[in-house]
């Protein structure tokens, strides 16, 4: 169960990074450090955060929505 949850968390975080990167690019903003937070990936049951700012995937998606 934990492995499936971690896989879903990682997938959600990766999707949020892609969404945020695309919206920022439309505004001419490139954040080279935008990606999954490596510290949050090393937990026993990872549920990664989005770097920079170590925010949740949901917060990253809300940030992308502001751009729309």
Report on this model:
With 68 residues, the protein is mainly alpha-helical. Helix content is 59%, strand content 6%. The chain has three helices and two strands. The protein has helices spanning 2-26, 38-41, 57-67, and strands at 35-36, 50-51. The protein has a two-stranded antiparallel ribbon. The longest helix has 25 residues, at 2-26.
Q: Secondary-structure blueprint of this entry?
A:
Elements: H1 2-26, E1 35-36, H2 38-41, E2 50-51, H3 57-67
Antiparallel strand pairs: 1-2
Helix pairs in contact: 1-3
- For the record, give the distance between the C-alpha atoms at the N and C termini, rounded to a whole number: 35 Å
Oligomer: single chain
Q: What is the helix fraction of residues, given as a range? A: 55-70%
Count up the helices.
Answer: 3
Order of helices and strands: HEHEH
Large-scale geometry: elongated
| Number of beta-strand segments | 2
Rg computed from alpha carbons, rounded to a whole number of angstroms: 12 Å
Which structural category fits the helices and strands? mainly alpha
Major β-sheet, in short? 2 strands, antiparallel
Widest sheet, order of strands: 1-2
Sequence stretches where pLDDT stays below 50 over 5 or more residues: none
Mean pLDDT: 86
* Proportion in β-strands: 5-15%
The gist of it:
The chain is mostly helical.
Give descriptors for this structure.
68 residues, two-stranded antiparallel ribbon
